[in-house]
Amino acid sequence: MTGVVSRASGAAREVEVRYDAQGAPYLATTLRGAQLLRHPLTNKGAAFDREERRALGLEGLLPPAITTLEQQVERAYAGFGLQTTALGRHLYLRGIQDRSDVIFQALLAAHLEELLPYVYTPTVAEAIERFDHVHQEPKGLVITYDDIERIDALLAAWPADDVRVVVATDASAILGIGDRGHGGIGISIGKLSLYGAAGVDPARTMPVLLDAGTDRDSLREDPLYQGVRRERARGQAYLSLVDAFVGALARRYPRALLQWEDLAKDAAIDVLHRHRRSMPSFNDDVQGTGAVALAGLLAACAGKGERLRDQRVVIHGAGAGGAGVAMAIQAGMRREGLSDEEARARVLVLDSRGLLIEGAKMEAYKAPLAQRRAAIESWKITGERPDLLETVREGRATVLIGLSGQAGAFDETIVKQLGSQCARPIVLALSNPITSCEARPADVLAWTEGRAIVATGSPFAPVELGGKRFVIGQGNNAFVFPGIGLGAMLSGASEITDQMVLEAAYALAEYVQERHLASGAMYPPIRELREVSAHVAARVMRRAVDDGVGTWPEGADPDPVAFVRARSWTPRHLPVRPA
Ligand SMILES: O=C([O-])CC(=O)C(=O)O
Ligand SMILES: [Mg+2]
Questions:
Q1: Residue 425: Cβ within 10 Å count
Q2: CATH 3.40.50.720 domain residues, the chain
Q3: 262 close to ligand 1 (CB < 6 Angstrom)
């Protein structure tokens, strides 16, 4: 079996994974000398051994001592320690990634909890905001509206023949920081770094930016801006770019999984439905965030000995994330026996104008989440539509979830109101990065005398209160998207069904309950990302088979989690030989 990793466009293959007589993988390459050191897939740096150096024309180009990967990680970590700002750390780590995927991922694996906040949220947001002022190395594939007729050719130039995971964004709603134009490619790169950490070979991933313009004037007027200086394409023009991209992608990589990331609300939902069957795809902000929030609620309910179906949930924010979370929680409540109507009445969603109520003016995708007029008839409210405080109070909420991108939206009055309505209120402040987060965990705990069960989307330090230490769970879709991807890959899924995503939520919730329930946590520590992803993947695989969209892989019985672990990529240097 040979897998083609890389080639010059249309020409001889530059790098290929091959297997020796014992079945051990190695890289066969036509590259020689310094070229090998400039390729992030073949560059082992000082870890090339004597024989490789001789055979590949590397003698004299490397330090004389042969280095182990562990030593390379040690050096890279020492350099990381010299960086004094968060953005400096991000750029330092991205520099290592540009030089060697293996060293980058080995470093990440050795210090995941410490490094992830610099690779991913919150620092990735700052790196995206300042992208065209600080990033020098191009990475990923950028497709603009002018390329619409030529996307097949652009994809043909991508130097890998077996891409299995693609993360694509149009950068219209990056995290909680809005339209970020060209810099948005940083979120595709960041998400794929997490796929690597969870066990997907970086050589089989491709970050994509669909550059449909930007509505941010300050970007279009910035002399350093590297993206398309036009207002965003909308409507049919936008959709034709998306359609052309998905069509070309499915032709070039029919086995790939496509993860949509950070598309603005209605586009997120439209694009998801439009292309669900064009190729296996899901929207991370709608479905991934939905699954992660549902998982956290299930774990928190188990922890306090209650059922999900008995909670009354208020969701602040009706963008892609808010809508996805509302749909996931309703699905979870239906699984516990509620009817559609009962589940709908227990999940109250607000957009920037207040509670969604049927008949009010709103985008089409919000309508199924709106409350019946009769249900709120007796509420005491001042305006046309109840605001957040009124909804929490009149709806007798027990759970408050933030996906609004509005820093500080969960203030003392609101949290105290929630805290007065139940013994153990649940607060999920999920907007990213930290500067967009709805509340600080220390405040929520103080305002509820330590009774609240709190999680956030970005990492927060533990809180000390009344002699107790509260660990703050990170309710981030990172706990589900890599597992969905791995499960889809290993089962050869032709589609990502809703049930597969829901299964990911239950896998995560059960993982927490089996290992961390005593700690009262809603989520596992982020250092367990790889193990969590294996559990999620195993369940996703099973569901793909049950839904008739995937095949149960040979060898997955009797222990599918062990099978996923064994089939996951781990960072190590492969032998490199001349092709
Ligand atoms: O990237 C993250 O940290 C989670 C996410 O998808 C978002 O906030 O849009
Ligand atoms: Mg996102």
A1: 25
A2: 285-570
A3: yes
Encode pLDDT of 168-215 as tens digits: 999 999 999 999 999 999 999 999 999 999 999 999 999 999 999 999
Among 354, 357, 353, 362, smallest CA distance to 344 is for 357
Q: Among 116, 403, 456, 476, say which to mutate for ligand 1: greatest number of ligand atoms within 8 Å of CB.
A: 476
Say what the pLDDT of residue 10 is. Answer: 42
| Distance from the alpha carbon of residue 174 to the mean position of ligand 2, in angstroms | 6
Ligand 1 centroid to 432 CA: how many Å?
A: 6
For residue 465, pLDDT over 50 is answered with: yes
Exposure b/e, 143-161, CB count within 10 A at least 16 = b: bbbebbeebeebbeebbbe
How many A from CA of 201 to the centre of ligand 1? 22
Q: Mean per-residue pLDDT for 225-248?
A: 97
- Cα of 418 vs centre of ligand 1, distance in Å, is 26
> What does the pLDDT look like over 431-457, one tens digit per residue?
999 999 999 999 999 999 999 999 999
Indicate whether 3 pLDDT > 60.
no
Q: Name the residue with the closest Cα to ligand 1, atom 6.
A: 285
Tell me: domain 120-279, CATH 2.60.120.430, correct? no
268 close to ligand 1 (CB < 6 Angstrom): no
- The pLDDT-based confidence of 126 (bands split at 50, 70, 90) is very high
Closest protein CA for atom 3 of ligand 1: 121
Cα distances (angstroms) measured from residue 548 to each of 256, 483, 553, 556? 18, 19, 14, 17
Indicate whether residue 487 lines ligand 1 (CB < 6 A): no
Nearest CA to ligand 1 atom 8: 175
The answer to whether the beta carbons of residues 406 and 437 sit under 8 Å apart is: no
What single letter denotes the amino acid at residue 313? V
* Ligand 1 touching residue 285 (CB < 6 A): yes
Exposure on the CB side of residue 93, measured as CA atoms within 13 A: 29
Choosing from 44, 118, 120, 145, which is the catalytic residue?
120
Given a cut of 50, is residue 305 above it in pLDDT? yes
Q: Is the pLDDT of residue 11 over 60?
A: no
- Residue ranges for the binding site for (S)-malate? 432, 476
Tell whether the model's pLDDT for residue 516 goes beyond 50.
yes
The Cα 420–Cα 447 span in angstroms is: 10
CB of 227 shorter than 6 A to ligand 1: no
pLDDT attached to residue 521? 81
- For residue 7, what pLDDT is reported? 47
Q: Considering the domain 285-570 in this protein, what is its CATH number? A: 3.40.50.720
Answer for the pair 37, 17: CB distance below 8 angstroms, yes or no: no
In the chain, ranges of CATH 3.40.50.10380 domains: 120-279
d(CA 175, CA 320): 11
Q: Which two tokens stand for residue 366?
A: 């919000």
Say what the pTM is.
0.96
In 3D, which of 511, 459, 458 has the Cα closest to residue 480?
Answer: 511
- Work out the pLDDT band at 4, boundaries 50, 70, 90: low
End-to-end alpha-carbon separation of the chain, Å? 15
